[in-house]
Amino acid sequence: MARKTKAEAAATREALLDAAEEMFIQHGVARTSLEQIARHAGMTRGAVYWHFKNKADLFHAMLQRVRLPFQDLVEALDDPELAKKPLEAIRLACISGFEHLERPRYRRVHAILIHHCEVFSDIDPLAMQNEMVEESCGALRDYFHCAARLGHLRDDIPPELAAQLLQSLLGGLFHDWLRNYERFSIYEEGTRLVKAQLSLMRASPSE
Amino acid sequence: MARKTKAEAAATREALLDAAEEMFIQHGVARTSLEQIARHAGMTRGAVYWHFKNKADLFHAMLQRVRLPFQDLVEALDDPELAKKPLEAIRLACISGFEHLERPRYRRVHAILIHHCEVFSDIDPLAMQNEMVEESCGALRDYFHCAARLGHLRDDIPPELAAQLLQSLLGGLFHDWLRNYERFSIYEEGTRLVKAQLSLMRASPSE
DNA sequence: AGGTATCCATACGCTTTTGCATGTAAAACG
DNA sequence: CGTTTTACATGCAAAAGCGTATGGATACCT
Question: What is chain A's pLDDT, residue by residue, as a tens digit (207 residues)?
């Protein structure tokens, strides 16, 4: 086979990752062979082993194309007024997260990570999920603590509890949606649910 | 090998299922061979192929040992007074569900179904999860509708929304706990969160 | 322009796992 | 008590998938 230009090589690498996503979603990670991925991209296993060390390495590369830490979502809002309205910051960050998730690549990769792969070699999807949850839950706690100090939170709801409630709500919604994304839009449903939940926990204006 | 009595044969069948649970939890479903399961139960593959048609059949048998539909949890309460207190019925049913889930076998099998298996042959764990969610969410909706009619629900929260909020909350908590059950007790945390959430949605006694 | 590194296809050996076929000793049955 | 069926263990053939070694044509560099 003839050597390709650098741009072409990079393109085949992306094509392999795209093919891997589709096959992983369709047949699960463990049940798809490198041969299947290569064929689906119009290549052979040789291409795969050139660009990636093995299946775990390919999997890692696939994950690295999508990353969205909660903190970044808040900072991306970039509105100095939000420091004084932590509940609003939480709401907008959630909405921003929902927007990201509706992009096909983000949705696919997260669906793979959560629903279509088991532990294999050095990849532990549960540990990765724990990291994601840990990170976003920590950020939520900070904002709810801030809200409590400002008196924006109902005084019978400690900030820790508020963070846990919202965290579980988001997690449940996330899983439900990934399981069958065509049934509803996580952007619309998520916006509704988060708004409702926050309004339940917000201090009534009278006090 | 000598033939065993019928009771002994049934015992080895259970032993094989137990071994399968442990190996599936530890290494994932796809990565454990029938040989590993048999050896871990002190048997050979011959025993496995005698009791089960193949891996999918064994998997199905494993699932069939644990079943807990939401409706049964409510009926098991068997308290005629609860018909007049739907929110309390929901709370107690959730608590009862948490109790079931803390039993090792229930926890293990659900963890396998949700976190340690992909699609394989005719088994589709996502479809099973959808059934479970659909079933429990439907029951929740009924009870919240009942609560709304009785005026037990805040009038700014439609019963559908209340059901979705609680459903997502339960789902998120469930996934978090299964991911690492040693970190907290789903019975304690679940009781706390459900109580808090229901109290947020309950109509204030003044009205 | 020549040499070299790159990008990928092809081929080979190896391990793992599956499904079945066969063997067998004791339980179950009449 | 003899026969049949049960409840496995053992052995074998086949396929699948992985990792690597090799080959080859061309882009890239100096």
Answer: 678 989 999 999 999 999 999 999 999 999 999 999 999 999 999 999 999 999 999 999 999 888 766 667 767 777 788 889 999 999 999 999 899 999 999 999 999 999 999 888 778 899 888 988 888 888 899 999 999 999 999 999 999 999 999 999 999 999 999 998 999 999 999 999 999 999 999 998 754
Tell me, yes or no, whether A127 and A145 share the same domain. Answer: yes
Asked if residue B123 and residue B175 are part of one domain, the reply reads: yes
Structural domain contains residue B207: no
As beta bridge partners, residue B36 has none
Alpha helices in chain A (DSSP H): 6-27, 34-40, 45-51, 55-64, 70-77, 86-101, 104-115, 125-149, 159-179, 186-201
Would you state the pLDDT for residue B207?
A: 44
- Same structural domain, B92 and B24: no
Q: Does B192 touch chain A (CB under 8 A)?
A: yes
**Nearest nucleotide relative to A34: CA against C1':** D17
pLDDT in tens, B132-182: 888 888 889 999 999 999 999 999 999 999 999 999 999 999 999 999 899
* Counted domains in chain A: 2
CA of B24 to C1' of D28 (A): 50
CATH of the domain at A25: 1.10.10.60
For B38-60, the pLDDT digits (tens) are 999 999 999 999 999 999 999 99
Residue B161 contacts A, CB cutoff 8 Å: yes
Three-state SS sequence of B108-135:
HHHHHHHHCCCCECCECHHHHHHHHHHH
In the 70-129 segment of chain B, residues within 7 Å (Cβ) of strand D are none
**Which strand D nucleotides have any atom less than 7 A from protein CB atoms?**
5-11, 16-28
- Identity at A166, one-letter amino acid code: L
Mind spelling out the 3-state secondary structure of A35-48?
A: HHHHHHCCCCHHHH
Q: Does residue A35 lie within any of the structural domains? A: yes
**B118 and B17 fall within a common domain:** no
User: Do B48 and B91 belong together in one domain?
Assistant: no
Q: Residue A165 belongs to a domain with what CATH number? A: 1.10.357.10
Domain that residue B43 falls in: 6-64
Q: Does B33 share its domain with B134?
A: no
Contacts of A157 in chain B (CB under 8 A): 196, 200
